[in-house]
Amino acid sequence: MKKYNFNAGPSVLPNETVKNTIQAIENFAGTGLGLMEVSHRSKEFQAVVDEAVVLFKELLNIPEGYSVLFLGGGASLQFCMIPYNLLEKKAAYLNTGTWANKALKEAGLFGEAVEVASSKEANYSYIPKKYTVPADADYFHITTNNTIFGTEIHTDIDSPVPLVADMSSDIFSRPVDVSKYGVIYGGAQKNLAPAGVTFVIVKDELLGKVNRPIPTMLDYRTHIKDGSMFNTPPVVPVYAALQTLKWLKALGGVKEMYKRNKEKADLLYAEIDRNKLFKGTAAVEDRSLMNICFVMNDEYKGLEDDFYKLATAKGMVGIKGHRSVGGFRASTYNALPKEAVEALVACMQAFESQHK
């Protein structure tokens, strides 16, 4: 039976990424050695990192004056690296979900961390709109896509202070004006690579302005100076990321990917809104293109387990919603084919026909 991977992360990857990485694990760049065995300082692997940086800059149209890094520790380590490197007195945070809240708490260890707005009172079902970013903040932090609650910031915010964004789950899914951001970071295991590598895009001029001493490994300047090679990088995920970047470029880049993502999301949201059994959980204007959350309508709540069993029997994997929301979540990342969404929609329609 064909499987459709709707997992929220680690999640679906392009077939080319998987196949090429498997081949490299067996024999990397004709060296006769597997990718997991070669030196990260070999000329062959250095070429991988160099090309990945070039493609990052090309696909996102990153201006001069920014560095692209491949680090370990996941986005969660960035929750402390950001304030370690940037927070001198005060930072501002938009609290739109679990990960945004965790980032806010970490920042509080380094200085004043101000919550400018939150949607917690509504179980993070919307993105706050009316708030003021303190002009004296060292930076303003946002989480652009909220995997658990299915909300997304769809435009690039105009911020009076350097804008920092966790884009773990929507990087490369839509065009982004990088010049509006001071830092963009994220774990790769949603839209880029297997778990293990974290990308960071940082504006160089923001660094070196805090008075505190920064541990060597947590200082962005360390990794910029050594081209992400200060210590051994996560070799296999970096290689896989390069394969995904090549795949993305071959398809037509970020604009084409956004078109495809919009088509998939529109298809599934239309069915959620049409089908009498289901309803969405996120505010319509803030619905995520990457993580589509829905539950049973109140009068059909008792059918959740039955639908889950039917969907599983038809090859749907990873559609159970996070415990914070319940119901179902279809993660429609870049590599998920439209065919998978069509199969889920057909499953929803079949279930509806069983309960007329």
Notes on the structure:
The chain is α/β, with parallel strands linked by helices and 356 residues long. The protein has two domains: 15-251, 3-Layer(aba) Sandwich (Aspartate Aminotransferase, domain 2), CATH 3.40.640; 253-354, Alpha-Beta Complex (Aspartate Aminotransferase, domain 1). Helices cover 35% and strands 17% of the residues. It is built from nine helices and 14 strands. A seven-stranded mixed beta sheet has the order 2-10-9-8-5-3-4, sandwiched between helices. Strand 3 (90-95), helix 4 (98-107) and strand 4 (112-118) form a beta-alpha-beta unit. The relative contact order is 0.17.
CATH-assigned homologous superfamily of the largest domain: Type I PLP-dependent aspartate aminotransferase-like (Major domain)
Which fold does the CATH topology of the largest domain refer to?
Aspartate Aminotransferase, domain 2
| Helix content class | 25-40%
How many domains? The number is: 2
Task: Assign an overall shape.
Answer: globular
Q: How many extended strands?
A: 14
Count of helical regions: 9
What's the helix and strand layout?
Blueprint: E1 4-5, H1 15-26, H2 43-59, E2 66-71, H3 74-86, E3 90-95, H4 98-107, E4 112-118, E5 140-143, E6 145-146, E7 151-152, E8 163-166, E9 183-187, E10 198-203, H5 220-225, H6 235-251, H7 253-274, E11 278-280, E12 291-296, H8 304-313, E13 316-317, E14 328-331, H9 338-354
Parallel strand pairs: 1-13, 3-4, 3-5, 5-8, 8-9
Antiparallel strand pairs: 2-10, 6-7, 9-10, 11-12, 12-14
Helix pairs in contact: 1-6, 2-6, 3-4, 6-7, 7-9
Summary keywords:
alpha/beta; Aspartate Aminotransferase, domain 2; Aspartate Aminotransferase, domain 1; 2 domains; 7-stranded mixed sheet; globular
